[in-house]
Amino acid sequence: MLIQVVLSVLLAHSIASPVMPTGPEPVPRSMVEPCPLEILPPGFHTIREARSDRGDSDILVIVASGLETPLAAELAQYATDLEADGYNVSTHVMTGGTPSSLRSFLQGQTGRAGAILVGNLPTPWYEMSDWGQEEFPMDLYLMDLDGTWGDGDGDGLLDSHSGDRGPEIWIGRIDPHAMEYGNEILLLKDYFNRNHLYRTGSLAVPARAVAFNDDDWSGYGSAGLDMIYGSVDVYNSPSTTTADYYRDRLAYGYEFVHLMSHSSPWGHTFKVPSGYSGTVMAPEIAEINPQTVFIQLFACSNARWTEPNCLGNWYLFGEDYGLLAIGSTKTGALLDFEIFYGPIGSGSSPGEAFVTWFDQVGIYDPAWHYGCVLL
Q1: Residues 21/261, Cβ–Cβ less than 8 Å
Q2: Terminal CA-to-CA distance of the chain, rounded, Å?
Q3: Out of 16-25, 174-183, 208-217, 306-315, which region has the weakest mean confidence (pLDDT)?
Q4: Distance (Å, rounded) from C-alpha 308 to C-alpha 353?
Q5: CA distances from 366 to 15, 166, 240 (A)
Q6: What is the tens place of the pLDDT at every residue in 246-258?
Q7: How many CB atoms lie within 10 A of CB 282?
Q8: Stated pTM of the model
Q9: Other CB atoms within 10 Å distance of the CB of residue 34
Q10: pLDDT of 52-100, one tens digit each?
Q11: Beta bridge partners of 211
Q12: Measured between alpha carbons, how far is residue 142 from residues 125, 176, 249, 294 in Å?
């Protein structure tokens, strides 16, 4: 019944632009349950010191209070795995505070390249009216540590960004708190376990990639994904890019999926020359259980992690392989993909590539890109 209701909502909204991956507007911040840590005094404590000094490759793992004990073994293994990849890792617990408190903590750390946020941590929100009034969670506030952020109308939503707007660090979130699929602790344990298996070569996945570009973006080809993979399967025929065929390709198995589709937080809707070809809903990801480790979601609001059961989190927590979803928390998405994929193909981590992309592309078109995040 839920799938039928959401499908009717998706199809009831007209798609106003031939290029924006539009869908129904998500709920405003006032209807999203606030992070419990925000009512507590700001506080952080370190549970694992960095083992060495490796210059500019420091990674901070910041965990929401209450998760550090049940996830002790997984967090220790994760730090060990990151160190095996050449990073310098420290793990911290946030016991209270606001997004500003979290940003101040990040500003106070030296040598940091990026931060992994685990669990329900304070979320910065931004508002803009370029394409109608939009309120959305965003992580650029935590990535750009020396820019000037403002809230001109005093409503608790950021609405201006000036000065040096480029990011200094990358942010990644591992946060299933809004998932209704299962227990938060168990979902996190499963995530860290498969992360370990993938990093140690024990998670068998097909070494292939696909670009599935629905009608309005049929001209994008591989979108630069061939800068990472030797060959990329491209599906871009308006009559081929249907909901059923997307399900089929997911089941076929790809390590990396690049999807371009009109979407909402919960569903991908596909067009054909005669109209629509159906919608792939979030719970179907678990039913298919694709061997997809990485997914680029050029799909409106798919990465809106505050939304119950958003698709970005279904690709991470609703299947047995997912580790990274790149997407947006609002209308719009990542563009100029080559600037993101190119550095990865040359050996950069996705986080490092994300900083490069935001610095060269993202900050110059806020309406398109300020909602872009790494889950």
Answers
A1: yes
A2: 28
A3: 16-25
A4: 28
A5: 21, 12, 33
A6: 999 999 999 999 9
A7: 28
A8: 0.92
A9: 13
A10: 765 558 999 999 999 999 999 999 999 999 999 989 999 999 999 999 9
A11: 234, 258
A12: 11, 19, 36, 23
